[in-house]
Design a protein that fits this description.
The chain has helices at 19-27, 44-51, 73-81, 101-112, 161-167, 181-190, 220-231, 234-237, 241-261, 270-286, 290-293, 296-306, 311-321, 327-330, 344-354; strands at residues 6-12, 33-40, 60-65, 87-92, 96-97, 116-119, 121-123, 158-160, 194-197, 203-205. The protein has 355 residues and is of the alpha/beta class. A 7-stranded mixed β-sheet has the order 3-2-1-4-8-6-9, with helices on both faces. The two termini are 38 Å apart.
Amino acid sequence: MNEPEVDVVVAVHTPERRVERAVLSVVLTEAPVRVTVVCHGTPLEPIAERLGVLAEDPRVRLLPYVDGVPSPAGPFNAGLDAATAPWVSVLGSDDVLEVGAIDSWLALAARTGAEAVLPRLRHAEGAVVPTPPARPRRTRGLDLVRDRLAYRTAPLGLLSRAALDRLGLRMTPGLPSGEDLAPSTLLWAGARGVAFDRRGPAYVIGADAAERVTLTVRPVADDLAPVLDLVARPALRAADARVRAAVAAKLVRIHILAAVHNRRTTGLDDADRAALAEGADAVVALAPTVLDVLSRAERDLLDAIAAGATTEQLVRLSDRRRRHGTPATLVPRDLRCALAREAPLRLMAASVLVR
């Protein structure tokens, strides 16, 4: 085969996953591509059997990887380290690309000179994932702050291998989930140009897996480990105050406060509540001005976390926070901040326009 222009890495942990769909969606492209299927702690033969004729395609290679660590970071990093193409992409074994996605990303990168191209995301049943809530119609020259890129956690799409190497970015080892939080955030902040293929073929998030790793309920400390890792990174701590505040707003909403909602049926023990308080303190310390843009409902829940409130109190405040459209969810305590970029009104409006 010709030298690939894009190396796509797929990590698979069991032959029960329908990885052949992911691989097929990659090779159905005009650009020269290579798919590296990293077999994490599972024999190559069953994966090859599932791939069928795709296993014989010269654009497909199987890479064994055994580390004994229940984290997707290891196999993804192994695949990225084995890449030689100028562009790389990661793909979940349950996910697929719409036909023409990679060709569309490459064309946009060529037009804009971007080092990262973000794809449109949708779920398999059709629902659009409204991230990033960027400026309307913006497709090139995206900015982490003005286009709220921190809300796109996963480093999906087309990524410059040179940029990843220059910034020293790989998936965070050892984490059962959230291994992509730090590399994606720091890439959006440090890439020389970010583009958004907002009308192109989508990256489709699959729903077939009996148990997706990212949906497993774990101790809060495990879920917030990626957050503590990110806020401790020197590259983020040295960033402009605007960048730190934008990242902090996303971390509070999507990681700290959402951890309460995700456990409204399973409950929060003393260790969980302590981990919530530790995570909240770390994020607010990164950018204290984040408090100004949170809605009244968000601030009330954050204050309750810091005060060591009971599970019942936290769940009640979490439910109140999710009653979207009520005054408490629409405006901050200081009305002068109501139209700030990260305040609820502008954030919600921008999210709607992504759909």
